[in-house]
Amino acid sequence: xxxxxxxxxxxxxxxxxxxxxxxxxxxxxxxxxxxxxxxxxxxxxxxxxxxxxxxxxxxxxxxxxxxxxxxxxxxxxxxxxxxxxxxxxxxxxxxxxxxxxxxxxxxxxxxxxxxxxxxxxxxxxxxxxxxxxxxxxxxxxxxxxxxxxxxxxxxxxxxxxxxxxxxxxxxxxxxxxxxxxxxxxxxxxxxxxxxxxxxxxxxxxxxxxxxxxxxxxxxxxxxxxxxxxxxxxxxxxxxxxxxxxxxxxxxxxxxxxxxxxxxxxxxxxxxxxxxxxxxxxxxxxxxxxxxxxxxxxxxxxxxxxxxxxxxxxxxxxxxxxxxxxxxxxxxxxxxxxxxxxxxxxxxxxxxxxxxxxxxxxxxxxxxxxxxxxxxxxxxxxxxxxxxxxxxxxxxxxxxxxxxxxxxxxxxxxxxxxxxxxxxx
Length: 424
Prior knowledge:
The chain has helices at residues 2-39, 51-63, 71-78, 82-95, 113-126, 134-137, 141-163, 169-182, 206-209, 243-249, 254-258, 300-312, 315-326, 339-360, 390-400, 403-423, and strands at 187-197, 217-224, 230-238, 263-268, 271-273, 277-279, 290-291, 374-377. Helix 5 (113-126) crosses helix 7, helix 7 crosses helix 14 and helix 12 crosses helix 16 (403-423). The chain is 53% helix and 11% strand.
């Protein structure tokens, strides 16, 4: 009995050794074949993705007269109404012929504009990787990344001058009218900063871009109005900076300093002012163009002002929240490697954000009041009789940084809001 059991165990050991040697030989053979194949020059593998059939399915889903998914679902997935999508697609095809539907040298149809824009917008809207979208839009990773980069560049070149502009006199009239009804005459928006995490920040730059979030980030400074339209965007400051440091590098007040901003006049509590202002939080300096709250209100008047100022100052934070919920690519850590690409992505998201607001909002011109006490007109241009000098530049810069005007304006706003509260 013992002899049979011992012989059976020896046979199992021998069988295991034979299997082990066979497995090692197979692994060695595969490694040898892999090394030899790497030494050989091989052509790139072609995958027939059936892009024409994919385009037919995409058209049936969203773009046919009776699509599978209605306009409500289209807006949820593309973040915009179909009419705005078709407007952008038409403009981009005319601006960049590489987005048009064409045939190659073999007579095969290229990717359609709908496929290319769908891939680019899904990357923005969902923060998807290019490889994730291959199964739906039938575009290879490298092809979709090239389309994505071109899409961002084209959006900035086509619409940047319109949707990244500073307020025009017509815009200022609407903003000032709304601000007067809110109890803040002369206010044209709120200013704040947002951090975007940079996952692939080079290790040599990590210290410069790491701040209070303990991860490398890049800062966006923005000015937003009551309808979350972003009028100013300054992106690219390292995350180790504070908001006040970003303001020192920002061009937000350049037009005022250069004397090219529209001239504005308004009255608060019987006193005249000729510079608009933004609502800001306590970290910002006490300048005439920034109105801050009271950290410790000492009276009912100051408490009322602090309550109203902090409520309307949230416009910039609301704009950041909408921007990040609409375009998930700027909500999570970014995987791009260079700051230029990140800047193009951020500006593209802001431009599309403003285009959606313009496409879906009501006409605010009907809400303007004709009896409000403010004036807006273009700054007259001199006919080369007086060339602006350094003295003029410094004088305008000092007016912006005047703490005396800041405190006087804030005190007048305190009295103005208190009087409105009493009248109501």
